[in-house]
Specification:
Elements (H helix, E strand, L loop, with lengths): L14 H4 L1 H21 L12 E7 L5 H16 L5 E9 L2 E8 L5 H13 L11 E4 L8 E7 L3 H17 L4 E8 L3 E7 L1 H7 L3 H11 L1 E10 L2 E9 L4 H5 L2 E5 L2 E4 H4 E7 L4 E5 L2 E2 L1 E7 L5 H13 L2 H12 L5 H14 L1 H24 L14 H12 L2 H5 L2 H27 L11 E8 H31 L2 H24 L6 H30 L4 H25 L9 H35 L13 H30 L5 H73 L2 H24 L12 E7 L6 H16 L4 E9 L14 E8 L7 H16 L7 E5 L10 E6 L3 H16 L4 E6 L7 E6 L1 H6 L4 H12 L2 E8 L2 E9 L7 H5 L17 E6 L5 E4 L2 E10 L4 H18 L3 E5 H32 L4 H6 L1 H16 L5 H13 L1 H17 L4 H27 L14 H39 L13
Parallel strand pairs: 7-25
Antiparallel strand pairs: 1-3, 1-4, 2-3, 2-27, 5-15, 5-16, 6-15, 7-12, 8-9, 10-11, 13-14, 13-18, 17-19, 17-20, 18-19, 21-28, 21-29, 22-28, 23-26, 24-25, 27-28
């Protein structure tokens, strides 16, 4: 290179050396923005996922499933099946209800879709009895972020009141809380239990009693009356005050006889009929479910809820100390203080003076506008202010009236009073949380809390990223052997990461497992560009250039290759935009994070790294810096004063000798002082000397240990790497000179690729890995129609077994479902749900622990003969279909039921399938009443009136509301349940009480019992049955293949069509998209490389590294028994982008040696391989080690959420490692063969013409 060593080449990168302050300020500004963005980013477990799914729910009161299907479902299918972007339409018709599920293509605007649905529903021509259909959109935020249980010695009524009246309203005001829902417990109710025979005697209907009660319970505002200047409000207040007043309500008069409510019914204050029972670890409880607003930060919101409900750690410690007696009660101390003052006349007089002064000051403040507070109107905040203000008002007279003892006593009293007041304020602050106000025997138990798993999972990713960054820096230090150069790269990592947070903030991306996983993935790659730049700068220094000139020249030399490798990596993430479904939405955040971090790292490598390299670093000798210099400096600072005193002492001694005769007395004083200082000085010197010796020994030992620990691995590494570096280039040259050796290398690589293709087919497949959160959900179903109490007995059996299991930490049980909530139609009094929290065991993997508990519970529940269905599953982070779904389509319900039973039996016989259930289930037992219209007309009755009478008697009707202080209780009028114990009791109810001879229901209606289908399903307008199952020990792909083979003979025997749905169908579509994305990623990589190299051939040579990388990835997946999934394919796409970087750097170096040095083809390849070995190994090892903690293969690294990130990390680590080893041999051979052929054909490009860009 021409020019002086210190001459800086003309280039845009010259700014990095000429304007270092400006460059530093730019990056400091970006770093500041990134740091501020980090504190603003919301924290969630997963990215926001918008599911393109909607459900239309229509209610048809009193209709059986067949009637619902015929009159409602078919019309809804006809109206909705023509919606645009509709992928599937299915429905479930049940008694009085139909749910139509609409699934749209991903990316559909659901807001517009809902408007289209509403428009179609308006044209559906539904029966008049059908109310306005509801349109329900699935939203993951509908799941509560936190579930709390309230237990204690109080009855369930009081627990429910505490939850509804005190806890829920206060928690609803917390910022970010959308709603708080209360479940369980008991609610008060006033029941008017009618006697049917007494009603018939007096000719009354239930509606007559209800109407009379509503008319007599009046609280009505009736306007105003003006009398003179006074306006009076007129209120009619005639509410029931006690249940006995309800009993004494007059229903009617018949002459002198009065008929009251008590004559026909019994009025009792009792509880509403329970629709749900909740328990925590066997104890009856009341549950509170906390729901978040759409944009709320789950972790921060959960923290606010916990602190508002349970208090901070300091608050709880304060309250616990007070309740245990360890801390004095300020209220009691204040009372004792006042009593003590009043018992002492002198102290009592002083206290009176204090109060008098305060009263005087208050009067003065009210007249003078606030005294010292400048008209604020508030009194002084401290007694001393009051005293000074009062003294200022009365001059010195007040002070003259108090003796000194009285003033001291007054000050003492003021101090004690101030301390007690401060303690009272502290107590009020300590009790400022909801649980502190609850009775002492009422406990609040946090159950499910999404924030715990989120924090744990994110902390795991953060720790893995930091650990990976540390490993990467360590590898760099071992390779470079220079502390300064390593520190430059170590600076590049946090700068790139922190600035990336600004990009995430600007793109409205949250911090979640996926985005942080992308950041951890990027950490290993962000140093690649910095390594390449520093290596180039180091080579320029070796050629004799100065620091500034080397920084600019070295950066300019590799800027093109660094940009090319970065663009190829960025390009592979573009196809993720075209991936639809959950995979695209979940991994889009990760792609954005990697792209942002790589783009930032390129800017850092091209501008910040050269600036740092030009301003610092070690000298050419690369020696360790003087680590003992600070210790020597500290010693000089500490010993300097003592040395100065020693010099002063000598001067005083000499001066004292000359003046001995004249200044005897001062001499004695000087001698004494001299002696004192000398002894003190010598003691200090001795102490410092001893301490310094000990410190030196300790520091020396510590430094020696550190140097030994660092030097020994470095020495071993340098010798091993030195040997590799010395042998690699000659070995490559030897291979390149032998066509047979090159043939062996290429043939071996080809065989490995063939093996990879065959091994891929042996891998299983699944949609997404299951995440083990340490929680299980158990669902129990009894036959439809089972009472709540019976279901509760069965749920208690499972609950007891779980409580006795040492692997289980807690159990929350919910039997039934609340009537006022929108639930799954197959839930009711016959179902129960158990949420099981497991105890973590470091010696047992969580997956194995969960499987063991589920297997044991299935055995326990199999002993319950009445049980119709049981399922145990893990909470799902994603809304996907069941693992196995078999759809059977046909027209005849009987044939569908028969085929569904046969398919279910077949699936139960296949290994690896469990929890097999069919949608064809017996329905609820029904009593069908059909009225004889001729008989009704004979008694002057109509069907509606009789039906209303029966409904009022059996179901009951809320007549009015009873006020009990702040409570409003329903007054329910119904027939006493003791009067309705059988169907005969129902049929004997009188329905024409006002006639001379009342007629029972049986004389006017025909009754019959039946058990129709529980539900009727339709898929794309055709009737269907569905058989579903979960998997145990098998992947979805393998299970789907075996199921197809098993059900194929059944399909041939019946007029039905059998299809496989569920996760298998979703997975097929997702994997097809991922393969397309992988192919598109490879194409984009080729486009970028062809554009940069201005060659169509050399990018093809580089792309050989992609199948070489798949060799290592497939081998690792096979060895670890990891099935193919969306996560694995994301890893493969990432691998396609980064695996080509080494080949790009290598081929770029070969081209440069041919162009600049004029070397022969094989010699240029050999020299370039020797030059690029170290940067290739460094970039590979930093990426591999940066990702290694994410693989979960290191001890203690398989933490929360590892299932989502480990397959991707393993794919990248194994693939990159294998590709690097193979690239170092295969790429040189392929380059020599291809370029040699082109040269022989006369088509070799003139390397010397133009620079490879």
């Amino acid at each position: 290179m021409s020019g002086a060593p210190d001459e800086v080449p003309r280039s845009v990168f010259r700014l990095t050396t000429q304007r270092p302050v400006a460059v530093t300020m730019v990056f400091v500004t970006l770093f500041t923005f990134g740091w501020m963005s980090l504190n603003r980013l919301p924290l969630n477990l997963l990215p926001d996922i918008s599911y393109p799914r909607a459900t239309v729910r229509a209610e048809y009161p009193g209709a059986a499933p067949e009637d619902v299907e015929e009159r409602v479902t078919k019309r809804l299918h006809e109206a909705l099946s023509v919606l645009s972007h509709l992928e599937s339409i299915s429905s479930v018709s049940r008694a009085e209800l139909v749910d139509v599920t609409l699934e749209f293509t991903w990316g559909t605007n659901l807001v517009n879709a809902v408007l289209d649905i509403r428009e179609r529903l308006d044209r559906a021509n539904l029966p008049l009895e059908v109310g306005t259909p509801l349109i329900l959109r699935y939203d993951p935020t509908l799941d509560p972020i936190m579930v709390l249980a309230l237990t204690g010695g109080r009855d369930l009524v009081e627990l429910r009141r505490l939850a509804e009246d005190r806890l829920a309203p206060a928690m609803s005001t917390i910022q970010g809380v959308a709603a708080v829902r209360v479940r369980g417990g008991l609610e008060d109710e006033i029941q008017v239990r009618l006697k049917p025979d007494r009603l018939a005697t007096y000719g009354l209907r239930p509606s007559d009693v209800s109407a009379r009660l509503a008319a007599e319970n009046v609280n009505l505002a009736s306007g105003t009356v003006l009398e003179g200047d006074t306006e009076y409000l007129v209120r009619i207040l005639n509410e029931y005050l006690t249940p006995s007043e309800i009993s004494q309500t007059i229903l009617f008069r018949d002459g002198d006889s009065i008929v009251r409510v008590a004559d026909v019914a019994e009025v009792r204050r009792t509880y509403k009929e329970q629709d749900v029972i909740t328990r925590k670890d066997g104890a009856l409880s009341v549950e509170l479910q906390v729901f978040k607003e759409a944009d709320a930060n789950i972790v921060e919101l959960a923290r606010r809820v916990r602190e508002r409900l349970l208090g901070s750690a300091e608050q709880r410690a304060w309250v616990d100390g007070l309740r245990s007696g360890a801390r004095p009660d300020p209220d009691q101390a204040m009372a004792e203080f006042i009593a003590g003052v009043e018992a002492d006349p002198l102290r009592a007089a002083a206290m009176q003076r204090i109060e008098a002064r305060r009263a005087a000051f208050a009067a003065m403040s009210s007249m003078g506008g606030g005294g010292r507070r400048g008209g604020s109107g508030h009194g002084p905040s401290h007694p001393s202010d009051e005293r000074s203000s009062a003294d200022g008002a009365d001059g010195s007279q007040q002070s003259d009236e108090l003796s000194e003892d009285e003033q001291l006593l007054e000050a003492e009293l003021e101090q004690q009073q101030a301390e007690l007041l401060a303690s009272l304020v502290e107590k009020d602050d300590a009790f400022d949380y909801l649980a502190a106000d609850l009775p002492s025997d009422v406990l609040v138990h946090p159950l499910s809390d999404q924030s715990r798993f989120i924090k744990s999972a994110i902390n795991e990713v953060r720790s893995a990223a930091l650990f990976g960054a540390g490993l990467a820096v360590l590898v760099l230090f071992l390779f470079l052997g220079r502390l300064g150069t390593t520190l430059i790269i170590a600076v590049a990592i946090p700068v790139s990461v922190i600035v990336t947070f600004a990009a995430l903030d600007w793109s409205d991306t949250s911090l979640n497992v996926m985005s942080l996983g992308g950041l951890a993935l990027g950490i290993g790659m962000v140093v690649d560009n910095a390594i390449v730049v520093l290596e180039s700068i180091a080579r320029c220094r070796e050629r004799g250039l100065g620091k500034a000139a080397a920084a600019v020249a070295g950066t300019r030399e590799v800027a093109g290759a660094a940009t090319a490798s970065t663009l190829t990596t960025i390009a592979v993430f573009a196809p993720i935009i075209f991936v639809e479904g959950i995979a695209g939405q979940v991994f889009r955040d990760q792609a954005l994070t990697v792209v942002a971090s790589l783009a930032v790292s390129l800017v850092v490598a091209l501008f910040l790294v050269p600036m740092l390299a030009s301003r610092g670093g070690e000298g050419s000798d690369g020696r360790w810096p003087d680590l003992l210099a600070p210790i020597r400096g500290a010693g000089r600072v500490l010993l300097g004063p003592l040395i100065a005193w020693a010099s002063l002492r000598s001067a005083l001694a000499r001066r004292g000798t000359r003046m001995r005769a004249l200044l005897l007395l001062p001499l004695v004083l000087v001698f004494v002082l001299q002696l004192m200082f000398e002894l003190t000085g010598r003691a200090l010197v001795l102490a410092i000397a001893l301490a310094g010796t000990a410190l030196s020994l300790l520091v020396g030992a510590a430094l020696g240990s550190v140097l030994l620990v660092m030097w020994l691995p470095a020495w071993i590494f340098r010798h091993v790497y030195g040997s590799l570096e010395r042998l690699y280039a000659p070995f490559v040259g030897l291979v390149l000179r032998s066509p047979a050796a090159m043939g062996v290398v290429l043939a071996s690589s080809a065989l490995l690729m063939v093996w990879t293709y065959g091994a891929v087919n042996t891998l299983g497949s699944e949609m997404l890995p299951e995440v083990h959160q340490g929680e299980l959900i158990g669902r129990i179903a009894m036959p439809v129609g089972t009472p709540l109490e019976t279901t509760d007995v069965v749920a208690a059996i499972a609950e007891r077994a779980l409580r006795d299991d040492p692997r289980v930490g807690w159990v929350s049980t919910t039997v039934g479902v609340p009537r006022d909530e929108v639930n799954q139609p197959d839930e009711g009094e016959h179902t129960a749900r158990l949420v099981i929290g497991l105890v973590k065991d470091a010696t047992v993997p969580m997956a194995e622990l969960e499987e063991g508990v589920m297997a044991d519970m299935r055995q326990v529940l199999e002993r319950v003969p009445e049980l119709r269905d049981q399922r145990f599953e893990r909470p799902s982070l994603f809304t996907v279909s069941a693992p196995v779904v078999v759809e059977i389509r046909g027209d005849d319900l009987g044939v569908l039921a028969q085929v569904a039973d046969e398919v279910a039996g077949t699936l139960r016989g296949l290994p690896g399938l469990r929890d097999v259930r069919s949608s064809v289930q017996p329905g609820s037992p029904e009593v069908i009443l059909s009225f004889d219209r001729d008989l009704l007309s004979r008694y002057d009755l109509d069907t509606r009136r009789v039906a209303d009478t029966v409904s009022d008697m059996v179901q009951g009707k809320v007549a009015t509301r009873f006020s009990d202080e702040e409570l409003k209780l329903d007054v329910l009028v119904l027939v006493d349940k003791q009067e309705l114990r059988s169907l005969d009791d129902l049929l004997s109810l009188p329905v024409n009480p006002r006639e001379e001879a009342s007629e029972p229901l049986s004389s006017l209606a025909h009754s019959r019992l039946r058990e129709g289908p529980r539900e009727i399903r339709r898929i794309w307008g055709q009737r269907a049955a569905v058989v579903s199952a979960s998997l145990a020990g098998f992947d979805v792909g393998s299970a789907s293949q075996r199921i197809r083979e098993a059900v194929q003979p059944i399909e041939h025997r019946y007029p039905v069509v059998i299809n496989l749905g569920g996760q298998g169908q979703e997975m097929d579509g997702a994997l097809t998209q991922m393969l397309t994305a992988l192919g598109l990623a490879v194409f984009l990589v080729y486009v970028v490389m062809a554009s940069i190299f201005e060659s169509l051939i050399q990018p093809l040579i580089i792309l050989i590294t992609v199948p070489l990388a798949l060799v290592g990835a497939v081998a690792a997946l096979s060895l670890l028994d990891i099935p193919l999934s969306v996560v694995v394919f994301i890893g493969a796409i990432i691998l396609a982008g980064i695996v080509v970087n080494n080949a790009i750097v290598l081929i770029d170096a070969i081209n440069r040696r041919r162009r600049l040095d004029g070397l022969e083809l094989r010699e240029a390849v050999r020299v370039a391989c020797g030059m690029r070995l170290r940067p290739i190994l460094m970039t590979t090892l930093t990426t591999v080690l940066g990702l290694l903690p994410l693989t979960g293969l290191l001890p203690g690294s398989a933490g929360e959420g590892a299932e989502l990130r480990a397959p991707m990390a393993i794919t990248v680590v194994a693939g990159l490692s294998a590709a690097t080893g193979l690239t170092l041999l295969v790429i040189p051979c392929m380059y020599v063969i291809v370029e040699g052929l082109l040269l022989k054909l006369g088509q070799g490009r003139a390397v010397a013409q133009g620079e490879s860009r």
